[in-house]
Design a protein that fits this description.
Strand content: 15-25%
CATH class: Alpha Beta
CATH architecture: Alpha-Beta Complex
CATH superfamily: Spore Coat Polysaccharide Biosynthesis Protein SpsA, Chain A
Distance between the termini: 40 Å
Number of helices: 8
CATH topology: Spore Coat Polysaccharide Biosynthesis Protein SpsA, Chain A
Radius of gyration: 17 Å
């Protein structure tokens, strides 16, 4: 495609051979029905279950699908960053490979950004009173997620009630500025993204979403939760160092 698409959708994928075929089928159908030109970017991290071959097979039949083969498995943060920096759309989404937030929510997010030019970052909020939880997470996952967000709010680390909802939209200029500075490779990258957006002066808003939880979550309740909390608690220092180094380089 020579012209820039209006919409970009970034999907990180690691060991997604079971869920990805249905997701890519839905994305192909969704993009055909859109009234805007779009691109779908699937970032596949190195694995052993054939995810790359599945994604490449679909992309060969869809001119607006792009597959990025990431040769190492560094984490969701790295995969999302890779796709967001490649995206060319005026509005850029990243979302989970299981489409826990259905694609029909895209229209409401785009409409919101069109009518509110002051907002540059728009995130899904599962805690919103108007959100529809079609299939809930387990009590343990839901409770741990709520505790994680309360800790972040208590120490003023995130300007959002639901940092980990994997459905976020950015204006292209904001996406490039934020993800050019984003560093965390693990699941806590969302916190870093939102903190960078706040520090860079971008206005952040949230919307209710429908949530259909996948029982095949890639997040380990124990191992990944502790790593996420550790990364989140050091993210302020990481962001401040990133911005300080940038200011230093800009000095005459």
């Amino acid at each position: 495609m020579s012209a820039d698409p209006f919409l970009s959708i970034v999907i990180p994928a690691y060991h997604e051979a079971r869920r990805l075929p249905r997701t890519l089928e839905e994305l192909a159908r969704f993009s055909e029905e859109l009234g805007w030109p779009c691109e779908v970017i699937i970032v596949v991290e190195q694995g052993t279950d054939g995810t790359l071959e599945i994604a490449a097979g679909v992309a060969a039949r869809q001119a607006h699908f792009v597959v990025i083969d990431s040769p190492v498995q560094r984490g969701k943060g790295h995969a999302v960053r890779t796709g967001m920096l490649r995206a060319r759309g005026e509005v850029v989404f990243y979302m989970d490979a299981d489409l826990s937030v259905p694609l029909r929510e895209v229209g409401a997010f785009v409409d919101y950004l069109r009518t509110r030019p002051e907002v540059q970052v728009l995130i899904g909020n599962r805690q919103h009173a108007a959100s529809r939880i079609t299939r809930a997470q387990s009590w343990l996952r839901r409770t741990m997620g709520q505790m994680f967000n309360r800790i972040l709010q208590a120490v003023a680390l995130a300007p959002a009630r639901d940092t980990q909802c994997g459905f976020k939209a950015f204006r292209r200029s904001a996406a490039r500025e934020i993800f050019a500075r984003q560093r965390l490779d693990g699941f806590a990258f969302d916190v870093e993204v939102l903190l960078l957006a706040e520090r860079l002066g971008y206005q952040i808003a949230d919307l209710p979403v429908e949530w259909i939880n996948s029982p095949e979550s890639k997040v380990s309740i124990v191992r990944d939760s502790w790593q996420m909390l550790g990364d989140a608690l050091r993210v302020r220092r990481l962001v401040e160092r990133t911005l300080a180094e940038e200011r230093k380089k800009a000095e005459p």
